[in-house]
Amino acid sequence: EVEDAQKIRKSVMKCFERAALPNLTDEERKKNVHFVVIGGGPTGVEFAAELHDFVNEDLAKLYPDVKKYVNISVIEAGEHILTMFDKRITHFAEDKFKRTGIDLKTNFKVVKVSDKTITMSNPTTGEIAVPYGLAVWSTGIGTRPIIMDFMKQVGQGNRRVLATDEWLRVLGCDNVYALGDCATISQRKVMEDVDSIFRVADKDNSGTLSVKNIKNVLGDIYQRYPQVELYLKTNQMKGFHDLLKDKETEELNIEEFKKALAQVDSQVKMLPAT
What we know:
The protein has 274 residues and is an alpha/beta fold. It folds into three domains: 2-137, FAD/NAD(P)-binding domain; 145-185, no CATH class; 190-267, Recoverin, domain 1 (Orthogonal Bundle). Helix content is 39%, strand content 18%. Helix 1 packs antiparallel against helix 2 and helix 7 (211-224) packs across helix 8 (226-234). The protein is elongated and about 85 Å long.
């Protein structure tokens, strides 16, 4: 919400103004400009990165003597941040935070927030209380009432966000598109379309597919069903042939084709909000 963003910006400015007051100890200055983000999801990570830029590109010019006391911390209960994304994105974000000096605290669970300190718990270190100037809680988002009402109307009342297809069309109604935090893409499973995939690849209508036939449509399959390629990579397979029980097989019928792809959909997971 714009109003919330404006409040946070004003609070950040006040923290800097307090830290710039004379006759403060170094510890008091550090406390005033210690910004804590609770939650390592997309919102928390983006906010921490934007706050870092705001501090270093704007506020550092206005408060040059305060910059050295600034500390931005991100507290995440899990082992990594951005776990809903590909691991490469997670590692990139964590490395970026490390390079820019953002303090990432994983495996820490916040157990108490007072007006002066945040108490967090770790299985190894136990409870730790740290002083802070501003804390932003971003451990999840709620569904807006208007979206909840709409979801009930289109038969998605038991969900937290709207389900769309890969073209962002809302499932259950025509000519309605959804994107943003209110929606997520529902990845279609390859086994739902395995018969039609087989028919398209079977150019001569022989009822069997050669390895060459499969290779000709493999690119389209990877694009339409990314879980196929992901399954191969995850299991360190070089190609479709590795899905076959008999690696010497040159032709497949529909049942053999189905067996080869049976486990692929296990890699399907709900994509994060768009």
